[in-house]
Amino acid sequence: MDALDVETFLVCADEEEGRRLARELMAELGFPEADIVFFEFNGPGARVRLRAYRHRPGDRYAWL
Amino acid sequence: MRIMGDRKKVLLAPLDPVHDVGLKMIRRALDEAGHDTVLLPPDLGAGEIIQAAFRQGADTVLISRTLGYGVAEILARFADLADAAGLREQARIGIGGMAVTRELAAELGFDGGFGPGTPVEEAVAFVEGREYQPQAARASKQKPDLTAGYSYRFRNVRLGGLLDQVVDGFVEWAAGKTTPGVERAAWRDRWWQAEAWLAGQNQDEFYRRYPDLCGDLPRDYYRQGKLHPKTRVMTERERRRLEDRVALVRERLVPRQLQHTRRKPWVFTQYGTGCPFMDVAHIKTLEAWGADGVIHFDPSWGARTEGLVEGFLSHQEDGSVITPENLHRVKEALETATLWQVRAHRGLNTAETVVLAGKLGADLTKINIAYGALGGGTDPARLAVDGYHAVRWAAQYRMPFDVVTNEELCGVPAYKAFAGMLITAAVGVRLGARPILQPLFCYSPEVMVNGQMEDDYVDYNAAKVRVLREIVDAPVWPGAPIGFLTHSEDRVQSSLTTALHAMLAASLDVDAITIASSDEAYSRGPITAAARIDTLRATREAFRFLGATAVSPGPRADFWQERLLAGIEQVLKDVLVVGGFVPAMYQGVLGNREDGAYPGRAGANTVAERATAC
Known about the structure:
The complex is a heterodimer. Chain A is of the alpha+beta class. Chain A is about 20% helix and about 40% strand. A 3-stranded antiparallel beta sheet of chain A has the order 1-3-2. The termini of chain A are close together. Chain B has a domain at about 10-135: 3-Layer(aba) Sandwich (Rossmann fold). In chain B, helix 8 runs parallel beside helix 15 (about 350-360), helix 15 runs parallel beside helix 17 (about 380-395) and helix 21 (about 490-505) crosses helix 22 (about 530-545).
């Protein structure tokens, strides 16, 4: 209807690498403009929630 | 007052129609640190904020933005104006708030960016021009003793008397008996030395007889090098790389504290992905997100196998194989404050697992004779003898053990399961061990059928904890996991129900809990690291929500408590009538076929009259 969320855990050395990996992952999935909704890094990596909007309010909705 | 370096002049301004509470919290911390602060009112324009910064002579400006719409444009305009006015030459500018990310701050050229969840200390460090050190901010975690302060005195004298009689008869029966499992445990206790093994020294004496004491699978392993079909040996390269990885993770791991103002309950999670290396990866994640303890979960076939194998073995299904190498690898990877439990409770290797876990430095183990015999598939007499000796070794290696009542999951009513748990615990006390009571804290088959939780999940769970406290002064560790059978495959619902049960457990002031991941109800593949974090985060929030206050169970909790007490007492009397603990398990006193309990057959007819153990 509106967006795709990806919930996962990324193995990374620090926050910077984690965010880079998150953006690369979404770009590989075909969403270069994805947003990092939630990001929490500690020890082994980062718990992330990544979002790609398909339809923002006011768009021409494919489901109409 | 504490000033790190110079006293700073800080202007704090919400670039919003309303105040950001985060800004007020930072101001309080800056004031306490001795800095000069001015907090502007909300709804000012960028120009007005910049003028105020010049007027005050601010050397640091902190801007907050909570509203998300147009945030990039508004902050970009502020940055342009600040540049044009020359404010950047005088002051460092940081932005923060719900709508701000570090990337956005860097992209717009701000000196600092503080997104949601940023600790106040990090903003203070920015103002003071020093690097934020989360390691310094954290409270150092300490390994607790779950049994400290408990006397194990029976508060209910009548039940204590009944348990004494049951234990008298059981100890007299079990002490003169042995089994292949006890013989193996005794052999390992005597001849397998952890220090020598770690040093790579020869242990020929151990191997001289050990394979003869094992069943087919371990014997084939020792004699022919044959592995269980679903296992593989991890390579030396994999082992080295795991060690390197653990070392790296350790450097940057800051264990979270789940508890808020209460000290308890300590939070445990099970691992047992099948692969000891994936286990280690998950354990480091669990530790990072606040787990206080981890529980080794072995494959179901391990309980029906006479003997243990060796090596870095990966398993393709649930449960990680108990080998010295696998256990030691996990132990070496643990943070010093993490409690480590190796469960031994239900099968033919119960006694030997206790010995091996003790030699490798486990903090806790798990032994329950009644559950293993009625719900775990092991012959009651066999597990009674193995359990008796396992308890003695648990005492020898100073490992407290929990007594789980998973037979409830077969359908056995709580009062019968509790009677079995109390007997095993009383045996433990008699033999000098430190048992921990582990009632199920869940939506069990009993309550599904009989309706004790038709209205709520609070009263009956509360009654279960209260009745145990009424009977004996012993630690209580609900499990396993809490909220079992209330979880669905949805991660939010699953995390929530775990958190609610965690909150109730905290309110009841229990000592520990075992929690699930948000994958608990998902059975078509392994648990993920993300699912483990879900429930830890949810549990932490539940503890924060509850604080030091309490959930108040209703009058039905009192009713159920009385019913449970009466039921337990009657079962203990019936145990004595049928001739003791072991006959009671065969005759259904502690759970019968109608309940869903079946005396197991693994290890039947292996009890002998000669005892060599202990």
